[in-house]
Structures are given as structure tokens and as C-alpha cells.
Write a structure and sequence with these properties.
mainly beta, Porin, 16-stranded antiparallel beta barrel, 7% helix, globular
């Protein structure tokens, strides 16, 4: 019987692909220049391009995909970054999504930068784990687990888990975000090295501007809270709370995004370092210079007011081209 299983599986796979063969190709151009003279965050220039492809098939509500995602940073060797394997199963219907495997992060996870910084899209484009979302007429809720490191003698065991969602009534909405990062040690203990735990959440309420013109946007505000401990070092958890507010407006191909944080600085392992400060105000001037179905281009000039005194700036250029079947 066991000798019949492999041919049967191969025939099933061939038949599935014969029903509906699919592919997806993504090219992304990255230009990110961060001029942080205040030294409160890491100054760097990131220039490069990413290529990714997937092939697979869909049978009813079930999809299987496999492929590769590769980042090439200009000025480095071609093997400076290892290719990232994409290999996942997806279930999709009108009210639910479920992913298992290694699958693209973009479009699924959208947390405040205080909790998850935007460079994750460059250097960790895939979630490696599980993602699920449920949708209703009045809102949605999702949760995920991202296994970031498998333990070896010299590598840590670490994982990131989180949830986010929204409930809405007409133009009003309430958002929730919950995030945890567990950073354990390698199998061989490192002297004076301890397990670190990062926890955080945010609740925000807001209003969306919706009309029949080309003007869109939203305003929201609420609580951002974080907790951090280093076992055997800190006396329990170190907690921080702050007020977080965001204003986004867009008219045709131009927009402004402004985010204000005030309170106590936070400890988030993958968070933007500026939010470790007690007061931080960021304003982005956006130009969406390419806006088609399969290709998007955006340039933004960002101003960072640090502790009410220093003014840093950064510029980001992004072009994303996606095509497939």
C-alpha cells in the first residue's frame, strides 16, 4: 500500500496544477535615507531592490504557494542577504483567512511603528508561522505567530506573537493592538545573558473622512502601553504608558501623515527607536507619483521632532510592481 502513496500524491499534484496553475511576481525598489543627527535613532541609507516570485495552485478556497524572496542591497555582494523561502498554505473566503507556513508580511500586518518598525518589510519580508483573520460587517480581528529564530548551540530561541482588530460604526472606529516578543537564549548559556520578554498593547479610537471627492483620511488617538523585563535583572516588569495620536489626509496623489507620542518611552524589540523617547512627533509629506493597479510609487519626506528640541529628517522612495495570475 505504501508504494502506491507517492504515485497517488504525484497524480493529485499534477491534476491540481492542471486545474489552475498560478504565479505571482513582485519587484520592489527601495530608497530609504535616514539623516538622524540627534543620534536618538540609527542613521543609515538603505538602497536596493527586492525580487520575489510564487507559483502554486488554488482548489476551491484552498491555495498552496512556493517561491523565493531575495533582497539585493546596492554596494553589497550578491550573497550578502540569504534568499528567503516562501512556502505556505492559505484558506480564504468572504469572512475568513488562514495562513500556515512562510508567507509575505506586506498587506497582512499593519501595527503602529512604535511596536513594529517599517524596516521589517525590507529585512524580514515573510511571516514564518501562522496568521488568521475573521471579518464581520462591523469589524475584523486577526492574530499571528512569527517564529523568528530556532534555538541552536549559538542561536537564540525567539518568537513574535500579536493580534490586531477593529470595530466600526459608520465613520467611527476603535482599534486594538497586542504584541509579545519572547527572546530566550541559545542552548549553550552565555554568561550574564538572560531571557527578555517584551509586551505591549494599544487601544485607539478615531473617525474616518469619507465622501465622494478625492479627499480621504482619518484621525485617531488613544493609549500605547509597554512592559519589559530581563529575568533575574529587572525587578519585575518595567512599564510605560503614553498618548499616541495620528492624523492622515490624502487628496488625489498627495498626502500628509502626522503621528504624535507623549508620555514615557517604550521598550519594543522591533519598534522604532524614536518611541523610546518621552516625546516624539513625526510628520510625513507624501507624493504618490505612480498609482496604477499593478504598480505603485511613493515618495515621502519625513520630519522627526525629537523631545521638542532636535529636528531630524528622512526620505523614502518606494516602487512596487506586482503581476501574476
Amino acid at each position: 500500500m505504501k508504494y502506491l502513496l507517492l504515485p497517488a500524491l504525484m497524480l493529485f499534484t499534477i491534476n491540481a496544477f492542471a486545474q489552475k496553475f498560478e504565479y505571482n511576481v513582485t519587484w520592489e525598489g527601495i530608497g530609504d535615507n535616514r539623516e538622524f543627527f540627534s543620534q536618538k535613532a540609527h542613521s543609515q541609507t538603505i538602497l536596493g531592490s527586492r525580487g520575489a516570485f510564487e507559483i502554486g495552485t488554488t482548489i476551491g478556497n484552498h491555495k498552496i504557494r512556493g517561491g523565493i524572496s531575495e533582497l539585493y542591497e546596492f554596494g553589497s555582494e550578491i550573497d550578502f542577504h540569504k534568499p528567503k523561502l516562501t512556502l505556505y498554505y492559505q484558506y480564504h473566503d468572504e469572512t475568513k483567512d488562514f495562513y500556515f507556513g512562510s508567507f509575505p508580511r506586506r498587506g497582512l500586518i499593519d501595527f503602529p511603528l512604535a511596536m513594529l518598525t517599517d524596516t521589517l518589510l525590507y529585512y524580514r519580508p515573510n511571516i514564518e508561522g501562522i496568521y488568521a483573520e475573521v471579518r464581520w460587517d462591523w469589524g475584523k480581528q486577526n492574530a499571528f505567530t512569527d517564529w523568528t529564530s530556532r534555538q541552536t548551540d549559538v542561536k537564540r530561541e525567539a518568537f513574535l506573537a500579536g493580534a490586531s482588530g477593529e470595530i466600526s460604526y459608520k465613520n467611527f472606529f476603535i482599534e486594538n493592538y497586542l504584541l509579545m516578543f519572547h527572546n530566550a537564549g541559545p542552548a549553550i548559556d552565555i554568561p550574564d545573558d538572560h531571557i527578555k520578554d517584551y509586551l505591549g498593547y494599544s487601544f485607539m479610537g478615531g473617525y474616518r473622512f469619507k465622501n465622494k471627492t478625492n479627499f480621504t483620511g482619518h484621525i485617531k488617538g488613544g493609549l500605547l502601553s509597554s512592559m519589559f523585563r530581563e529575568r533575574s535583572v529587572t525587578d519585575g516588569y518595567l512599564t510605560a504608558n503614553s498618548f499616541l495620536a495620528e492624523l492622515v489626509v490624502r487628496y488625489k496623489n498627495y498626502g500628509v501623515k502626522s503621528v504624535f507620542h507623549s508620555g514615557k518611552g517604550h521598550h519594543f524589540h522591533f519598534g522604532d527607536r524614536f518611541y523610546a523617547l518621552d516625546t516624539y512627533w513625526r510628520t510625513d509629506l507624501n507624493w504618490f507619483f505612480i498609482n496604477y493597479k499593478n504598480i505603485k510609487g511613493r515618495f515621502n519626506l519625513s520630519f522627526h521632532l525629537v523631545d521638542g528640541n532636535d529636528l531630524d529628517q528622512s526620505q523614502q522612495l518606494s516602487i512596487i510592481y506586482v503581476f501574476g495570475s
